[in-house]
Specification:
Elements: H1 5-15, H2 19-28, H3 33-42, E1 58-65, E2 71-79, H4 82-85, H5 88-103, H6 109-114, E3 116-117, E4 120-124, H7 125-136, E5 141-149, E6 153-160, E7 165-172, H8 178-194, H9 206-223, H10 229-247, H11 262-273, E8 278-286, H12 298-305
Antiparallel strand pairs: 1-2, 2-5, 3-4, 6-7, 7-8
Helix pairs in contact: 1-2, 1-3, 2-3, 5-7, 8-11, 9-10
Length: about 300
């Protein structure tokens, strides 16, 4: 397979590796992007996770929680420009969308779009979206939503950066007061800042752990040829343990107190209120994550129009 400059650029954006290293990785893997990422990781030339790259999509994340804290929703609604994302009409629409999600029984976007619009039931949500597109003059998209129902506790929300990041945290506890609410808000801020993938290690599949172990083994063998196998194995386990601590919320260093892990912070809150306090689940949306707008080259566009 021919390796193009665009493929090299994409791999470089994903991994942060050098251009020649990316070219070699693509050549060695016959242009397979995922295998090329792993090739670079094994050589110690890429981070453990693919970098998100430049996030170009605009819009906001918004959250809503019922008065009793038992039901919450989070949505991401996209616009073409940041200017529209700050528009009052757009913001009002997003608020109405998330409030409808709190009450919806739909489990996916298509079903949600087909629902009657809560503020004008003669329309569907999709029809209201179309009318907002006509009024605002930009393409808009209700990209995703998630609803959380707490059976044994409550849900707390946190919105960061004017809607750039939205978080919901489901807390299991028999105590719903200012102390546990503040703790939940602190945990939501932690999730917004550090972006864990799991609550705890028991949620991680054995396949994921084995896959990471193989990557780290290849990396260690490349770095430490000649070292005894038992030493290399200890290095692998140490690195794997460090990686798992970074992606598991409860194992992370608590951002407000570096002497504590998140689990130890929750233990201190539980001791204060006299009841167990645990994180059951969380949702983290970041506006535009995984989406890239097409980069326009103005000079090329002009040349094309002029037939140059």
């Amino acid at each position: 397979m021919a390796i193009t400059a665009a493929m090299v650029k994409d791999l470089r954006d994903m991994t942060g590796a050098g251009m020649m290293d990316c070219k070699k990785a693509l050549a060695a893997t016959d242009g397979d992007m995922d295998k090329a990422v792993e090739f670079l990781r094994e050589k110690g030339l890429a981070a453990a996770e693919k970098k998100a790259g430049r996030i170009a999509a605009e819009g906001v994340c918004e959250a809503a929680v019922s008065e009793d804290g038992k039901i919450a929703a989070i949505v991401e609604v996209n616009s073409e420009t940041d200017f529209v994302a700050k528009n009052e009409i757009f913001r009002g629409f997003v608020s109405a969308v998330v409030n409808q999600v709190v009450k919806t029984t739909s489990s996916d976007i298509d079903a949600f779009l087909a629902e009657p619009w809560s503020l004008e039931p003669t329309k569907t949500v999709k029809e209201e979206l179309s009318s907002k597109i006509a009024v605002i003059g930009e393409n808009l998209n209700i990209r995703r939503f998630q609803k959380v129902v707490a059976e044994n506790g409550f849900v707390e929300s946190y919105i960061h950066g004017g809607g750039r990041i939205g978080v919901l945290v489901e807390v299991e506890t028999t105590v719903n007061n200012d102390v546990t609410r503040e703790a939940a808000k602190n945990i939501a801020m932690q999730i917004a800042a550090i972006s864990p993938k799991y609550v705890q290690r028991s949620e991680i599949s054995a396949e994921y752990i084995e896959h990471e172990r193989e990557i780290l083994k290849a990396q260690a063998m490349n770095e430490n040829t000649g070292k005894p196998e038992n030493i290399i194995e200890k290095m692998i386990e140490g690195r794997l343990n460090k990686e798992l601590k970074e992606i598991c919320l409860l194992d992370q260093v608590y951002v407000k107190d570096g002497d504590l892990t998140v689990q130890k912070y929750l233990d201190s809150v539980a001791k204060e209120v006299g009841a167990p306090v645990a994180v059951k689940s969380f949702v983290r949306f970041e506006t535009g994550e995984g989406i890239e707008k097409k980069e326009e080259n103005f000079a090329e566009e002009v040349a094309k129009q002029m037939g140059m």
